[in-house]
Amino acid sequence: MFRHFTMRQALAACLCLLSLAAPAADLPPAAAGTPHVRARLVAAVDAVVPGGEILLGVEQRIIPHWHTYWRNPGDSGVPTRIDWQLPAGAEAGDIRWPTPQRFVLGPVTNYGYADEVTLLAPVRVPEGLAAGSRFEVRASVSWLVCREECIPEEVELGLALPVVAGGAGRGDPAVDRALARLPAAAPWQAGFVQAADGSLRLRIEDGAFRPGRPASAWFYPETWGRIAQSAAQPLSVSEGALELQLAPGSAPPPPGEALRGVLVLGEATADGERLSGFELAAAPAAGAAGEGEVGLLAALGLALFGGLVLNLMPCVFPVLSIKALSLLRHAELSPWQKRLQGLAYTAGVLVSFALLGGLLILLRAGGQAIGWGFQYQSPVFVIAVAYLMFGVGLNLSGLFTVGASAAGIGSSLAARGGYAGSFFTGVLATVVATPCTAPFMGAAIGYALGQPGPALLAIFLSLGLGLALPYLALAAWPPLQRLLPRPGAWMERLKEGLAFPMYGAAAWLVWVLARQGGANAVLVALGGMVLIAFAGWLYAATRGGSLWTRHGGAGFAAAALALALIGGGAGVDAVAVDAAPRAESAAGDQPWQPYSAARLDELRRAGKPVFVNLTAAWCISCLVNERVALSDNGVLEHFRERGIAYLKGDWTNRDEAISRYLAEFGRSGVPLYVYYPPGAASRPVVLPQLLTPDIVRQAVGNENPVSTSTNLKES
Question: What per-residue confidence (pLDDT) applies to 373?
């Protein structure tokens, strides 16, 4: 049979055998090294079978004291990346990550691997490969390797496996070691509850748990931001259930989404502690509320009560008083016309809150960190509201009167009670209410900002209904109107007197501008107010003149008003400067230190008691609390006696670090007051949103006093 085997055929057969025996000229080596990591491409088998599936892996041997990263690297870092180049028809799956370990450097906590790790990935082998051919794999592998410094590195690896019809043998033992390090499927059902303060409680029911078993537990979230990596995770075991207290991160689990990750349990052994990892998908608890938990119905109720209390805030009460006076002034209106006044006012409030909620949804969808009162972080918005308050004050003082026609409403509507005026008064009430935070509001708004759009809008509308409810009840229920005093000349004096809270609000907003944009912004704002006053005077002075006088006066008044509005907005936007350096320099003579996450962590690791005050210049509730309680000499002496470090964070301008801290406590806006008792593992205490000196002293008064010579600046 060999008689017809020619020399040419023999040469071709030899070349084919050589091509099978030797690697392709352009195939990278199976192993390659960098200064810090030796990488090797390994396989679970020594050959592949067409249509089967194999495990490939990248083994990393890391020099001592350095580490690479897990799929969620933690506070910093980058996970290892493998880019596969496979034969046509082959497909690689996701990396199977071994159980990681923690690396803590100061305030930074990372998840990753030291010494040695093998990252596995399943690869599907295509049908139709010819037995005797080769299955060639290439992998571009990149990683970040860190000690105190971090260095990005990468290698190119290649591996050729023979194709066989069946009976592939075992491959590299590194794969078996990697399989042993993969987290096991959790044998229990797990759930979590998010409390009103934002904390997460991870709970596992299993009769085998008891005090001391497990000896330790730590949860590694699969997705960055679900928890605060550096926070302690207090463990408790009771009645066979294991519970971990987790601090929320900047991106806590969205509503209805499971909390996924790896739970590492430690068991005490004669040789130390044996660690076991378990893949966990903790479902959000359905209806089983823990202490302080807020659900949708509770949030709606809290928002309604919060809106009611907003009416008593100094920024809103004058507006409500103006509307109450309007009912007295129009005693000739029928009960139905008064009810329509109340409904128009309520519509103005609800429409404004709906627009505010819709804007929050859009900003959140764009990845913005936003919260209650966020619009006051814009100097342009602040100056616009300052001008509005000043203009309302001039109107109440009688400098000018804008008829219903000027608002685009016919005289017939004005004669029936001015429903458009009621609507826009509701809008005004909403605008002036947003820098205020009332009791009950914090938990409701914090919950709302973590919910889908419909739930967020429902909570905002409930808040608006609470704000509108007092006037709506007054307008709709005649017996309440009979409790009001009789009309008289006092009404005009009271109306003029109510102008001064409006002037005060405008002055306060100019002060906010000074914090945001410096002295030049104040000059722009005051110049605009002069133009607004001139426009009002000119409009009123020319109303009784000839046709040309009236039109000319109105035209010049409109031009002055436009110059104030457009020039003021553009002016403060142009001169706005970062106020943070001024805030920090101002802290030198104050009993507080500027808040920073690093400073808080430093004090906490030293076991110091810490009081954190998050405030803003545009937050009236914050300013009242600081004046009444936090500037009280007795409270400050209480802090000094107990060595309590007082940190103050200013959210007047946009500050992502403060936004993240607020999110950790489920809050969307200021004020927020948090007390950390002594001890690095102590749990924070959240104080109410309205403070008195006694409330503060009781919250921080459980520790023994220290020497009164303690210097808070050095603590």
Answer: 56
